[in-house]
Structures are given as C-alpha cells and as structure tokens.
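2024-03-11 09:14:02 INFO worker-7 job=invfold-0412 stage=load source=structure_tokens
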C-alpha cells in the first residue's frame, strides 16, 4: 500500500489498524506547518520542539484511543491541540524568552509573502531577511486575538474558516481580526521605520 496517495482520513484509519508508516506520512505531511506555528507563538526553538512533540504524543494517544472524530479536518484539529498546549504553557506562568525566528526556505516556510521577493543581490537579500525578522518581532506587540489570527494565517496557512473554528468565533470576526492585525502591523512598521520595498 502506498500511503503517500491516501487522504488524511484514510491514513488515520490505516494507522489505527496498526500501520506506523501511515502515521509517519501524516507527520511528514503536516510537520512544517505545525512546527512553524508553534515556533512563531513561543519564539524559542527548544520550547517549540518540546511542544511539537507533546502535540503529536497527544495526537497519537487520541487516535489510538478511538476518540478522534474530526471528520476530514485533521490539520485544524492538530493545530488546535498545539494552540491549547501553548496557551497552557503561558497559563502555568513560565517565562518565555524571545529569540529571533528565521524563515527556513528549505522547509517551504515563506511567512511574509506580502514582502517583495525578486532577483536581488546578496546585499539586498540580507536587507530583506533582516526586514522580515524585524517585522516578525513587531508581531508580539499586537493584541493577542489579532496576533493569533495573523500567525495562523501567515505561518500555519490556515483558511479563515479553519481559524474561525479553531478560535470559536465567526468567520467575519476572524476576518476582522486579520484586517486590524494588518492595520496595526503597518502602523508599527511605519513607527519603527522599516522599509518594505516598492
């Protein structure tokens, strides 16, 4: 059986019937988006890796216990688990140090696609990378609800419907939060004198 051709739902069924290869395919299919989302939330690679592992341990336990019932919505379900673990971490009062996260092009994580990308010199690419990192740092100053939507959309690639379901709000509220997040982010960018290019 070629697990690569199976849908998420089919992979879950095959995994629950004892196939480790099916879960490995699920993990490989979604790990970049889940890890990128967690990293953007916590700003610390070691912590992100711990939460990533905790997330998938919970996923495995839930699947094996037969309690999974999110028909055809595996990724949003996993993202919701990751989000809740991050929130639990904050609620426990642990201090999280902020470190600059970097965009891993080799993993296909292109967070700020609204920034200009073109054939540029090494110097221009370095300036662009530094600009991306500075913009990422400014996200932490957004209100939490706006920050969550922006991260879910830009880093995790979730649709607004998926964001609405994950945050228990209407799709219009999710869209509104994204709009205000971008407005406020632009204000922060202007205030800090960051040039985004033409």
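2024-03-11 09:14:09 INFO worker-7 stage=emit residues=198
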């Amino acid at each position: 059986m070629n697990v690569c051709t199976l849908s998420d739902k089919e992979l879950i069924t095959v995994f629950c019937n004892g196939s480790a290869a099916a879960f490995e395919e699920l993990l490989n299919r979604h790990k970049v988006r889940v890890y990128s989302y967690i990293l953007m939330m916590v700003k610390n690679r070691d912590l992100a890796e711990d939460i990533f592992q905790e997330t998938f341990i919970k996923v495995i336990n839930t699947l094996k216990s037969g309690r999974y019932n999110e028909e055809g919505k595996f990724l949003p379900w996993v993202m919701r688990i990751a989000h809740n673990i991050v929130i639990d971490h904050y609620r426990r009062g642990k201090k999280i140090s902020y470190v600059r996260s970097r965009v891993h092009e080799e993993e296909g994580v292109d967070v700020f696609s609204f920034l200009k990308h073109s054939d540029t010199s090494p110097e221009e690419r370095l300036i662009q990378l530094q600009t991306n990192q500075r913009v990422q740092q400014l996200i932490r100053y957004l209100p939490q609800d706006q920050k969550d939507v922006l991260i879910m959309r830009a880093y995790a690639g979730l649709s607004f419907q998926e964001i609405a379901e994950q945050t228990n709000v209407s799709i219009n509220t999710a869209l509104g939060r994204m709009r205000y997040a971008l407005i406020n982010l632009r204000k922060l960018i202007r205030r800090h004198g960051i040039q985004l290019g033409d």
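2024-03-11 09:14:09 INFO worker-7 stage=report msg="Residues 94-119 have pLDDT under 50 and may be disordered."
2024-03-11 09:14:10 INFO worker-7 job finished
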